[in-house]
Design goal:
By secondary structure, this protein is α+β, with helices and mostly antiparallel strands. The chain folds into 2 domains: 266 residues, Zn peptidases (Aminopeptidase); 105 residues, 2-Layer Sandwich (Alpha-Beta Plaits), CATH 3.30.70.360. 32% of the residues lie in helices and 25% in strands. The longest helix has 21 residues. It is elongated. It starts with 9 loop residues before the first helix and ends with a helix. The mean pLDDT is 96. Bound molecules: zinc ion. The site of zinc ion has 5 residues, from helix 3.
Length: 382
């Protein structure tokens, strides 16, 4: 590919970014199967002068690849900055055939496009090349391309943090227009309940049984479904149990979740729910086992934080204004923030993600690349 696209000519830049994006989406990389793509992006980072390693994250959860970690020592005296995106895509994400439809890149309609998150990957690579084209020395950079983000942030959870020095991170993974700055994300807690009653013949000896379904129905009827308050949601999404219509059901399981922008609220609501399910089960003479593990903690980054100020400055360099967002979704940012890397998630322009209608406006792809460039350049100004 011609490197000239990363100079000043916008048409060439556009073409080079679209070409690289299409090259990467054609490489199959559903969660856990990122090896080939990881090798390709690692080689691209090496071409840009980065020291690149791959950690062993994948081996901890059955994936075939680890996270790709690239480091550029850069100009002395500057603090390193982390740029990140994830390599994996949701299903159906195999055999993607990207095509151009006006200003948008689309899939063939039978797969996702994987703009989530290859739009982020390509923006970071292009941003580095563009920064290179205008500055002899870049600041110290750490680029992390994670694996299995879509399967519960697994790559970020198992990332080798001893290799990361940055205290500030930018994650190109919000499916909002470029300019969006996600500064708040919820704490997410799972609710897993198993109700155990007593089996009996439903017609011959109904008195001998305790219906787990009846207990579960009562417990679920008390569950605070939906928007609990303006910062909190709750849902039960899976229910299973029962063997036959002539058996009083012995066991039912249901799974749900609680999310809140207020971590304390999430924890206390999960405890209330757990206690309530147990109390109701006991009332029927049944038992309930309830677990409420924290899947990830939320974050709230102050608008005065340096990581935010620098994003605003970088956006302003291309005449854009930051649009602050609070999300109820999780991302690698939730993990990075708990690991001491103050991180925000940036809009990279993809639309209708996680669906076969997913598309990426080319103007947004280019804008995301320019934002990555300007974040790098802004780091040289402190
Ligand atoms: Zn994503």
């Amino acid at each position: 590919m011609s490197k000239s696209g990363y100079g000043l000519d916008r048409a060439e830049l556009r073409e080079a970014m679209v070409e690289e994006f299409c090259e990467l989406v054609r490489i199959d990389a559903e969660s856990g199967e990122e090896a080939e793509l990881a090798n390709v992006v690692a080689a691209k980072l090496r071409d840009l002068g980065f020291d690149v390693t791959q950690d062993d994250a994948g081996s901890k959860f059955g994936g075939n690849a680890g996270n790709v970690i690239g480091r550029l020592s850069g100009a002395p005296g500057y603090e390193p900055v982390l740029l990140s995106a994830h390599l994996d895509r949701v299903t159906p994400g195999k055999g993607i055939v990207p095509s151009i439809d006006g200003d948008r890149i689309v899939s063939g309609g039978d797969t996702v496009l994987a703009a989530d998150d290859l739009g982020g990957v390509v923006a970071i690579l292009a941003g580095i090349r563009m920064a290179r084209a205008v500055r002899k020395q870049l600041p110290p950079l750490e680029v992390v391309f994670t694996v299995s983000e879509e399967k519960g942030l697994k790559g970020a959870r198992h990332l080798n943090y001893s290799q990361i020095q940055s205290k500030m991170g930018y994650i190109f993974d919000a499916s909002s227009p470029v300019g969006a700055v996600v500064v708040q994300s919820p704490t997410h807690i799972s609710v897993d309940a198993t109700i155990t009653g007593r089996a009996a013949h439903a017609a011959v000896n109904p008195e001998g049984g305790i219906s787990a379904i009846r207990v579960a129905a009562d417990a679920i009827s008390k569950f605070p479904f939906g928007r609990v308050d303006d910062q909190t949601t709750a849902n039960i999404g899976i229910i299973s149990g029962g063997r036959a219509t002539n058996i009083v059901c012995e066991q039912v399981s249901f799974k749900g979740e609680v999310r809140s922008l207020d971590a304390e609220r999430a924890l206390s609501l999960a405890k209330e729910i757990s206690d309530e399910i147990k109390t109701i089960a006991a009332r029927y003479g049944a038992s309930a086992e309830v677990t409420t593990p924290v899947d990830y903690y939320g974050f709230t980054i102050s608008r005065d934080a340096r990581v935010v100020k620098r994003a605003q400055k970088a956006l302003a360099m291309s005449g854009r204004e930051a649009v602050f967002e609070s999300t109820m979704g999780g991302s690698d940012g939730n993990i990075f923030n708990t690991k001491g890397i103050e991180s925000i998630v940036l809009g990279m322009g993809a639309r209708d993600v996680h669906s076969t209608k997913e598309c990426l406006p080319i103007s947004e792809l280019v804008a995301a690349g320019e934002l990555a460039r300007d974040l790098i350049l802004a780091a040289l100004d402190g």
